[in-house]
Amino acid sequence: MIKKTLxxxxxxxxxxxxxxxNFIPADDSNLQYYGRWDFSNPxxxxxxxxxxxxxxxxxxxxxxxxxxxxxxxxxxxxxxxLHSIFHGTVSGATNYPLAAGLSxxxxxxxxxxxxETGWANHTFYGLILDDGKSLLEPTARPERKIEFIGxxxxxxxxxxxxxxxxxxxxxxxYTNIDEGFGPIIARHYGxxxxxxxxxxxxxxxxxxxxxxxxVPDRFNRTNIQTxxxxxxxxxxxxxxxxxxxxxxxxxxxxxWEGTLVQSETDLYKTRYHEFLSTIRDVYPGVKIIAVAPHVxxxxxxxxxxxxxxxAAGNADVFYAHYSYYEGGYVNHxxxxxxxxxxxxxxxxxxxxxxxxWQPYDDQTPPVITSYPDSSFISYDNNFAIKIVTDSxxxxxxxxxxxxxxxxxxxxxxxxxxxxVLNFSGEHGVNYTLYLKASDANGNTTPVSSVITFSxxxxxxxxxxxxxxxxxxxxxxxxxxxxxxxxxGTVTAVNDVTTVYFRKIxxxxxxxxxxxxxxxxxxxxxxAVYLNGVEIGRINFLTGAEFDYSTPAxxxxxxxxxxxxxxxxxxxxxxxxxxxxxxxxxxxxENGRISxxxxxxxxxxxxxxTLGSEWRFYDSGNKPAPQIVxxxxxxxxxxxxxxxxxxxxxxxxxFNPVTTIRFNLPHSAKVVFSIYDNLGRQVVGVAESQxxxxxxxxxxxxxxxxxxxxxxxxxxxxxxxxxxxxxxx
Length: 728
Description:
With 728 residues, the chain is mainly β. The chain folds into 5 domains: 4-136, Jelly Rolls (Sandwich); 145-354, 3-Layer(aba) Sandwich (Rossmann fold), CATH 3.40.50; 368-457, Immunoglobulin-like (Sandwich), CATH 2.60.40.650; 475-628, Jelly Rolls; 645-726, Immunoglobulin-like. It contains 8 helices and 47 strands. The strands form 12 sheets. Strands 2, 4, 6, 7, 9 and 11 form a 6-stranded antiparallel sheet that branches. A hairpin with a 4-residue loop joins strand 43 and strand 44 (681-690). The protein is globular, with a radius of gyration of 30 Å. It starts with 20 loop residues before the first strand and ends with a strand. 37% of the residues are buried.
């Protein structure tokens, strides 16, 4: 164990004479990063998960680094030996020395974060070498990879503390993750490692019983404390995952007080099974060890979970446990360094027994768990078919029952659990689609799932945020909306998960509006629509789909102005009636819904004010779509499309003339071009300003040879392309 006196040797001084040194930026290709780093800014990568480290090889007699980090402690290894412990002391980007007085030659540095943080990001900007010196090409990264998922035991919290009652504020300086059982095991195998661990967190809840604080909910995060950016699992695929979660669940459920009940055990087991499925999905072929400490409830429950997994045919997950070490705990009951070495020595034989460096060969085919299993009618030629598989898979389809390999068509979005087919068909035709899925191991669903539907374009399906949607049976009232008795509430709404609001806004001269702002106030989350198009959201993940039951990411008071200057959105405003629609979601069961809104234009003129009237729907579900006859209910002579769309050309194949149809929800400059199957442009770009509506282009291919061609249309930020076949 490193003694406390070593901390007096911690480097904390600014580098002198920086102008005579060579700064190596953080995006230099010779720097190797390990662990979860946020590279949103490649020249200032940041981190918040534990166990991150940097490796580089350099020449010269000294080395320093530029950090914005005055909290964490780092081990500085020079040429494989611990040289010093670094601790920044200044807020903001600051240069620090790491090592000096080295022999003038080839050296290695490994800069490893010792401590655990989870409330903020800490930034690294680069290394500082002697003047005229540079980084050298590093040795290849280790091929073996292990991810450790767990709590404060995995994070080695306070493992160098001198006593069991070390004050919490000193935990960071007494934590040395390099001497935790995870890095010890990784070094034994010469493996890279990631640590997805957080003190106090469990599989279901934290040690105080808070269900918001669990590791599975944060597993997909690049930064532990923020929902975005999401972590890209494909960039780092481990051979082995070791899970150690349960101590905080046991505490949060009241296990130490003897109040734990069977329903809590069942919840823990359910969440564990779900998390194992998630790990399999993001890491195909990985082997998993579920580890239990000395607590009997955790040992019994985790071993039962693994037995259930194995009985279900999942032979990729294994059970292990380790002992209690009498006298081997510090920092309020956490393992000391000697105990971490003991735990590692107990787990290594389990790892050897499963040979994790050979990927697991899964023999279980994927299952299509959600798809339209009864015949339906589409009221649009072009629509999305969405299905779900129980594991990551690729989905294909055909119009007759075939083997997976023989099926001619692949879903547009596929490869994970959620799959989307953007289908284009003809009015009055009945379709039957046969679907099969295949996973990364080549396992294929043995029997096709069948989808049947027809297309009827004489009718339209109106959603709740469509202008022509009939909301006459909705409630009506003045904002501020909220629960009865809530402060400031003018119109009470039911205590439901989601409430929907609509307001008709008449605009006589849309050309006078070059920008506008919509203010949304209330809680806890909102999605805002203009004429059926989403223009902003609050407290939802960007780009993620949500429905009636989707909770807000957090319980939060909202007071946000959406400032709209994008002409593609401003042009959604039409002459006459427009619809402003807002859906408000609460955060889980402890959330609440309130709402008020205001709209102004670029001249700061109020288009509708706070406290104005809205139609609202608070019936405990999502408003059902309405089927209407186009001729009698929707703009008798001109049905304006509410979204961009490019249809399949017809006829197809063609010789030599075909028609290409596309929809514009608003006026836009349209760019049209055609490419051959190798991506070479064969027809020059044609540009023209088009009004909102349905448009057709008649294309004459008489000058082209037979073959497959790609036609492409773009309008503002929207772009789409499709294939067509010319046969002469």
